[in-house]
Amino acid sequence: MLTRRPLVALSFALPALLLYSVIVIYPLFSGAYLSLTDSSGGPKADFVGLDNYVRLFGDGDVWDALRVTLLYAVVVVVFQNLFGLLLARGLYNRPRARKIVTAFVLLPSLVAPVMAAFIFSYIFAPEGALNSFLGAIGLDSLQRVWLGDPSTALFAVAAVNIWGFAGYSGIIYLAGYSAIDKDVLNAAAIDGASGFSRFRYIEWPLITPALTVNLALNVIGALRVFELPLVMTNGGPANSTTTITMLIYRNLFGSAGGFAYATALAVFFLLLVVVVAVTMTTLLRARERRMF
Amino acid sequence: MATRTLARPNWIGGSFAVAWLLIILLPVYLMVRAALESRAAYTSGGPLAPPTEFTLENFGLSFELGFGHYLLNAAIITVGTVAIVLVLVPPLAYAIVRSRSRGVKTVFRLLLIGLAIPAQVVVIPLYYLINSIGLYDSLLGVILPTAAFVIPLTTLILTGSMREINNELYEAISMDGAGPIRTFFTLVVPLSRGGIATIIVYSALNAWNGFLLPLILTRSPEVMVATVGLSSFRQQYSVNIPGLMSAVILTIIPIFVVYLFARRSLVAGLMGVGGK
């Protein structure tokens, strides 16, 4: 049996691990080394220690990008979960509506981010569908150059993310709801518990695992956003949508000699994502244990 | 699972669900509408006016600009990625689920951290690596990294579905004298068909929708994929919304078709993640 033969087990695991190590782990470490040099892409590179990291902490662009990325993540995570929860709560108790709506809600999450970005660039364009619609219903005063105005661009990009993945979150919440014992909900309804108190005291604690999964997936996804700002705004206007991933990209292909610096930025970014992800799952798991 | 409870359905959530359905479908409608209209009609009518005439000339233009070739490349990369994932991931998931060795468990935990690794972090060294083994600007040079990056997620999904196989079945087949390989092929693979279908869909989606890896690892139009090709079309298309939308539709249609057939496994995969 496989259970008692580590070497046999290893041989089953080995091919996949080999590919993963060569393509992901090895570049990860050689990237970490590259970030300690002054490489500009050519073969000549000198070891410079932590110079790139020192530069990084004094770089105003990095702090700006960090602020943009975190704001983006907060907006996306809050609305994706709010909408996802509303969907699940509206549907779990309506079998027929649930069938129809769930047939569609996953679709946007399957569309490539690049494609979604193109569709919405066109909707948010100055002469695009959104402004035409606002004009048609007499709300001309709300018309904006959505992607060209620093105060709206980041939210317009976030809206596409939310459009794509709120349904995805909703399906995960629905799974949480279908794991709730129906007798518990029925008992509460017979006892005359109001909708809100049913939600607060029965549903909310019981969908905790779904909340954990959603928050973790959404935060990681939002921090890693790249194609949406790249296509929709290219980081602009006035850097208001320059996320960390955009800044890495710009350092890679933009200014000369940014290669090693871009790698340092990428390593810093990886640490950020891992720290946020691990902290969050730890906190959320602890919360789950308190609740049960 | 889908039975009503005595509690009255929540009307705020219910109305939101209807509104959300519209919000999802509206951009799709606008896109299709723009793609089916001639440029002249589009420019004069604007994005909201009901379509006056239908034409397929925009799709023709996309093919003339070589978009068909980009779609073919994306399809080859998708098939290649799925093939590699199918060969590598089921044995890995089997080893993780059935082995009690600590090494294998540790590997699984490290793979989960791999879920968080953004491709941006490794693209530069990866570019050097792919270049040095002579795969730069080739389809295989995109397939291998795409498959590698999808290993953590697909392994997570498949271990979830393999854990549901009853222990007694393993004992029974072991009494029969089956070794690990026969157990794998006659018991594990047939009983985790659902999970395998899900990882096929996920890896195909990842490959078809991939952007950063083909962007960094290819250069010439012969190996360009649809997502990257579209971005490079942008200049030619900047004033031609119908043309752009037709190319977007061509890229999305295969996904919708897959979705029609694979919706169950997609939802099942997500439900498995959320219900536990």
TrEMBL record, chain A:
Q: Which InterPro entries match?
A: ABC_transporter_permease (IPR051393), MetI-like (IPR000515), MetI-like_sf (IPR035906)
Keyword list, A-Z: Cell membrane, Membrane, Transmembrane, Transmembrane helix, Transport
The regions listed as transmembrane in this protein's record are 7-29, 70-88, 100-125, 153-175, 206-226, 259-284
Asked if the keyword Transmembrane helix belongs to this entry, the reply reads yes
**Which Pfam families does the entry link to?**
BPD_transp_1
Q: What's the source species for this entry?
A: Herbiconiux gentiana
Q: What is this protein called?
A: Sugar ABC transporter permease
Membrane-topology descriptor:
Multi-pass membrane protein
Q: Which residues form the ABC transmembrane type-1 domain?
A: 66-280
Name the lineage.
Answer: Bacteria, Bacillati, Actinomycetota, Actinomycetes, Micrococcales
Predominant subcellular localization, coarse grouping: membrane
Can the keyword Membrane be found in this entry's annotation?
A: yes
Automatic annotation (TrEMBL), chain B:
- Name the domain of life this protein comes from: Bacteria
Q: Which UniProt keywords apply?
A: Cell membrane, Membrane, Transmembrane, Transmembrane helix, Transport
Where is this chain primarily localised? membrane
Query: Could you tell me which Gene3D superfamilies the record lists for this protein?
Result: MetI-like
Task: Read off the PROSITE patterns from this record.
Answer: ABC_TM1 (PS50928)
Subcellular location as annotated: Cell membrane
Q: What protein family is recorded?
A: Belongs to the binding-protein-dependent transport system permease family.
Q: Which residues form the ABC transmembrane type-1 domain?
A: 71-262
Q: What is the protein name for this chain?
A: Carbohydrate ABC transporter permease
Which parts of the chain span the membrane according to its record?
12-32, 70-95, 107-130, 142-162, 183-205, 241-262
Q: Does the keyword Cell membrane apply?
A: yes
Pfam families, from UniProt? BPD_transp_1
- Please report the record's description of how this protein sits within the membrane: Multi-pass membrane protein
Keyword Transmembrane attached:
yes
